[in-house]
Backbone:
């Protein structure tokens, strides 16, 4: 929790009403809060007192937050509602349309836009009416919007971390419609085909034995298509929390798509430990599936131990799920906290076990991204493709190139930068 200024009670305090309005803002921002929790929060504050800001913060936190992904939203709304009234001007600027000049606007922090929408009830403040003289002499400006970017296109390119509550809901619908097609892998096994190029001598001889040894025709066969597995290793640490949820939402759609071509989709999450959430993806309801996956993965928004997690996967799961030429998607920012120096070794082993290893990193959204972190420098040489994974468009681009063995993304450019 950031350091807040001391809270001051007004002359005529209405603390119960303020806590009620605060809870309503949290509910509009997506937290599951009902009347029972509001009553418990009022009683808890009455028991704990209102003298220390830290005690007040953690009292409300204990009553309203029961899932790790709700912490960022609670922190932002608490900051705006209880600490800094001047922040209302910033919230209003986030909700109002503005003409962008040469200078770039301040980018909203995580959950800040959703907090502003919750406190303003999703409505932009009313604009003042222009003077009568200006209204009489209004100038009609015609704008050619044929080349402007549509709202849907803007949403496709918007960073997951900067989306509002409504934008996240719309992005999830778009992700549910994306497909991740894959081409079959050639196999030595054959299947009967009248137009096959190979002669099936066994089937030909068996047919001739039923005809007294007379061979009237040659049976043909063609290679049987073999579909690979899709293995996803998703980082759910604090810096990757919002990106991971959106990627898992997309992964649920891929796992439940009929005729996608994948033999099976395996999903693992890691922060400080590795968790297999594959069985939860079989649930048809995406909300129930992700809720169950979040309940099993107890290290949401925790630290990052990539080397230890990859070691656990290579030791316990690699032989079980990496057969049939599996394609591996690694979703992480590469900011490892392990200090044993085994990350490069574990990445090399993972790369040798996979048919293709594709790394999605949301840090690639920055134009000036450079592989300066130790973890990124250790991982980059052992991937086949290095791509961005921060928006709907980046995941759509992945679907277009996942079956292309020549696609390396940004890997070659960044390797040249290392030299």
Residues:
């Amino acid at each position: 929790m950031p350091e807040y200024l001391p809270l001051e009670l007004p002359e005529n305090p209405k603390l119960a009403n303020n806590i009620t309005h605060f809870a309503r803002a949290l509910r509009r921002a997506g937290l599951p809060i009902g009347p029972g929790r509001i009553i418990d929060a009022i009683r808890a504050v009455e028991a704990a007192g209102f003298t220390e800001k830290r005690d007040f913060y953690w009292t409300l936190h204990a009553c309203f937050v029961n899932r790790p992904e709700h912490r960022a939203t609670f922190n932002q709304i608490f900051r705006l509602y209880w600490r800094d009234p001047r922040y209302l001007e910033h919230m209003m600027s986030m909700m109002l349309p503005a003409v962008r000049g040469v200078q770039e606007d301040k980018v909203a922090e995580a959950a800040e836009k959703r907090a502003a929408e919750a406190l303003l009830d999703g409505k932009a403040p009313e604009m003042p009416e222009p003077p009568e003289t200006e209204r009489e002499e209004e100038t009609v400006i015609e704008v050619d919007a044929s080349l402007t970017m549509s709202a849907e296109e803007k949403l496709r390119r918007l960073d997951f971390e900067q989306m509002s509550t409504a934008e996240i809901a719309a992005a999830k619908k778009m992700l549910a419609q994306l497909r991740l097609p894959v081409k079959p892998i050639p196999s030595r096994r054959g299947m009967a085909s009248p137009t096959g190029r190979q002669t099936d001598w066994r089937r030909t001889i068996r047919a001739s034995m039923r005809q007294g040894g007379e061979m009237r025709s040659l049976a043909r066969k063609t290679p049987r298509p073999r579909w690979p597995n899709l293995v996803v290793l998703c980082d759910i640490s604090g810096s990757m929390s919002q990106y991971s949820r959106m990627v898992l939402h997309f992964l649920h759609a891929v796992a439940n798509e009929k005729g996608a071509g994948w033999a099976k989709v395996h999903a693992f999450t890691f922060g400080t430990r590795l968790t297999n959430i594959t069985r939860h993806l079989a649930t048809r309801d995406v909300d129930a599936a992700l809720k169950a996956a979040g309940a099993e993965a107890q290290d949401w928004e925790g630290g990052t131990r990539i080397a230890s997690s990859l070691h656990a996967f290579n030791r316990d799961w690699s032989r079980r799920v990496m057969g049939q030429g599996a394609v591996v998607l690694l979703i992480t920012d590469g900011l490892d906290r392990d200090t044993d120096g085994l990350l490069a070794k574990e990445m090399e082993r993972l790369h040798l076990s996979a048919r293709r290893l594709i790394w999605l990193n949301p840090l690639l959204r920055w134009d000036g991204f450079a592989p300066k972190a130790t973890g990124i420098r250790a991982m980059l040489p052992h991937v086949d493709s290095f791509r961005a994974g921060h928006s709907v468009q980046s995941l759509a681009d992945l679907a277009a190139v996942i079956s292309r063995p020549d696609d390396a993304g940004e890997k070659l450019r960044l390797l040249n930068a290392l030299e």
The chain has a mean pLDDT of 77. Residues 241-255 form the longest helix (15 residues). Strands lie at 190-192, 198-199, 220-223, 230-235, 265-270, 274-276, 327-331, 356-361, 385-388.
